[in-house]
């Protein structure tokens, strides 16, 4: 079920805020999306700043990338506290896993709140993150947390549900015979990959003989990066808002500079640069 932020138009960031957009990043793997944000901050330090990085694990390469650039970076112990979702086989075990996961993220939220008291607030939280989030962290960053998802979330089934959700959307798209894949950036809510779609990167054609891992690697540069850049620029400019209307999948219609967008939000083409978008 998608969280209802209310019937009125909801601006996602007020234009004209002082200082750069201060970004926190939750990471899991290589740090490709984190590098995009760091590069953006280096190119335009008066507009963008990656201020904090946190992970659910200790081995993410993204933690090292953050430290290389002088960004405070926190490893985590999620699996030690919560176990893994794949091993929670029955209803009782799944309930325990979900409770522990919420507790873990609530503690992370409290730690971030303490950090903000000493260092100033974060304006936006970006997820390049392999865990579902519930609880206080999700509540406090409502309307200010986005997720990069390597699947085309405009693909719906007969019941108007999103098809390419979950952990392996590239492999699923290829198994279904899709001729291209693309990244979707959405506003995180209490659903599983069901939030309002803000932007989609350019479609990346599936080349013959290429497997899902190679396809996803190519997609990181050709679709992930421009999708995230556009979305962060739009947040910083105060260009994004949610309309009271909904799409067939139940997600809110996204306004860009007051203009309603189709399901998928701003859909980028390979010909555009971030400055032109």
UniProtKB/TrEMBL annotation:
Instruction: Tell me the domain of life.
Output: Bacteria
Q: What does the record give as EC number?
A: 2.1.2.2
What's the source species for this entry? Streptomyces lanatus
Sorted keywords for this record are: Purine biosynthesis, Transferase
State the organism's lineage.
Bacteria, Bacillati, Actinomycetota, Actinomycetes, Kitasatosporales
The protein's name:
phosphoribosylglycinamide formyltransferase 1
The Formyl transferase N-terminal domain, residue ranges: 22-200
The record's listing under Gene3D superfamilies reads: Formyl transferase, N-terminal domain
The record's listing under PANTHER family reads: PHOSPHORIBOSYLGLYCINAMIDE FORMYLTRANSFERASE (PTHR43369:SF2)
Q: Which InterPro entries match?
A: Formyl_transf_N, Formyl_transf_N_sf
Pathway where it operates: Purine metabolism; IMP biosynthesis via de novo pathway; N(2)-formyl-N(1)-(5-phospho-D-ribosyl)glycinamide from N(1)-(5-phospho-D-ribosyl)glycinamide (10-formyl THF route): step 1/1
């Amino acid at each position: 079920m998608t969280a209802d932020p209310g019937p009125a138009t909801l601006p996602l960031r007020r234009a004209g805020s002082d200082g750069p957009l201060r970004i926190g990043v939750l990471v899991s793997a290589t740090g490709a999306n984190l590098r995009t944000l760091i590069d953006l901050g280096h190119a335009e330090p008066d507009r963008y700043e990656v201020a904090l990085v946190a992970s659910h694990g200790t081995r993410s390469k993204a933690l090292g990338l953050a430290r290389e650039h002088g960004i405070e970076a926190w490893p985590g112990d999620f699996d030690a506290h919560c176990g893994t979702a794949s091993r929670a086989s029955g209803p009782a075990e799944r309930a325990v896993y979900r409770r522990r996961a919420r507790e873990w993220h609530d503690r992370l939220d409290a730690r971030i709140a303490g950090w903000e008291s000493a260092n100033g607030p974060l304006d936006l939280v970006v997820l390049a993150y392999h865990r579902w989030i519930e609880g206080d962290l999700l509540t406090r960053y409502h309307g200010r947390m986005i997720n990069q998802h390597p699947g085309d979330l405009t693909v719906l089934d007969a019941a108007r549900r999103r098809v390419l959700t979950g952990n392996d959307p590239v492999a699923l798209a290829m198994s279904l015979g899709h001729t291209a894949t693309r990244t979707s950036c959405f506003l995180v809510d209490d659903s599983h990959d069901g939030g309002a779609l803000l932007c989609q990167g350019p479609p990346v054609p599936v080349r013959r003989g290429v497997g899902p891992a190679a396809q996803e690697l190519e997609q990181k540069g050709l679709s992930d990066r421009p999708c995230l850049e556009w979305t962060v620029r739009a947040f910083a400019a105060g260009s994004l808002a949610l309309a009271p209307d909904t799409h067939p999948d139940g997600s809110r219609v996204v306004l860009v500079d007051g203009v309603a967008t189709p399901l998928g939000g701003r859909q980028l083409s390979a010909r555009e640069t971030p400055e032109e978008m």
